[in-house]
Design a protein that fits this description.
Helix 5 links the parallel strand 5 and strand 6. Helices cover 47% and strands 15% of the residues. The protein has 7 helices and 7 strands; from the N terminus they run βαβαβαβαβαβααβ. Helix 3 packs parallel to helix 4 and helix 4 packs parallel to helix 5. It is α/β, with parallel strands linked by helices. The protein is globular and about 50 Å long. It has one domain: Rossmann fold. This is 3beta-hydroxycholanate 3-dehydrogenase (NAD(+)). GO terms for molecular function: oxidoreductase activity.
Length: 249
């Protein structure tokens, strides 16, 4: 089993929701954690919460759509804690526009963060892990929406489907370095993006009904899956669906 204790983990989109829950899970396992996000105020708030778990956590402002900033994030982690052993590419955005109503700008913005940003995260983490010479674990947040179609999520579907295949290709290329690459694929999770305020009560009930278990998932349940993908040393190139039975239908 891959030992998380004492390792350095980088978590993009780590200031809220699934990323924050996963950063907490890593800290509870004894890791040193760098959380990254675009908003410094949210970063400071997240740090306050995480430092109650462990002092071994820092924030680095990062726009994952910018390769220089992602490389800078990896360099910062190495400078701060000496290595990068775990990379969790979790940063992402969503929009709810059908293809005939979506602007080129909207499409390209989502792809730049949700797909291209994951590529940068895998690339620069892998380069560092190769230098270190003792392998590592890379996990990216995909989605059930990377497997199914949705009339209101064409760019999100495209990005998450791309993340799935990017992950499989990277896993094959990096296996010789003992670098494992996987995705966690959540169903709808109760977060700052999906809640009564953003979706409305009727919208939430509709989403809950899509899951055979009759509810939305919790961020902590996804974090548990990420920890599994990091710890299990015979798992690479796979997609872990944590979706309340959504894709079993």
């Amino acid at each position: 089993m891959f030992e998380i204790k004492g390792k350095t983990a980088v978590v993009t989109g780590g200031t809220s929701g699934i990323g924050l829950a996963t950063a907490k899970a890593f800290l509870e396992k004894g890791a040193k954690v760098v959380i990254a996000g675009r908003n410094e105020e949210r970063g400071a708030k997240a740090l306050e919460e995480l430092k109650a778990v462990s002092p071994d956590v820092v924030f680095h402002k990062t726009d994952t759509s910018d390769p220089a900033q992602v490389k800078g994030l990896i360099d910062f982690a190495v400078k701060t804690y000496g290595s990068v052993d775990i990379m969790y590419n979790n940063a992402g955005i969503a929009n709810f526009l059908p293809v005939d109503q979506m602007s080129d700008e909207d499409f390209n913005k989502l792809i730049s963060i949700n797909l291209t940003g994951v590529f940068y995260g895998i690339k620069y983490a892998a380069i560092q892990m190769e230098k270190q010479g003792h392998g590592g674990a890379i996990v990216s947040t995909s989605s059930i929406e990377g497997t199914i179609g949705d009339p209101n999520l064409p760019s999100y579907n495209a990005a998450k489907g791309g993340v799935n295949l990017l992950t499989q290709s990277a896993a094959l290329a990096l296996a010789k370095y003992n670098i494992r690459v996987n995705t966690v694929n959540p169903g709808y999770i109760y977060t700052g993006m999906i809640n009564e305020k953003t979706m409305g009560e009727d919208g939430m009930k509709r989403l809950e009904s899509l899951h055979p278990l009759g509810r939305l998932g919790k961020a902590e349940e996804i974090a548990h899956g990420v920890v599994f993908l990091v710890e299990n040393e015979f798992t690479t190139g796979t997609h872990l669906y944590i979706d309340g039975g959504y894709t079993a239908q």
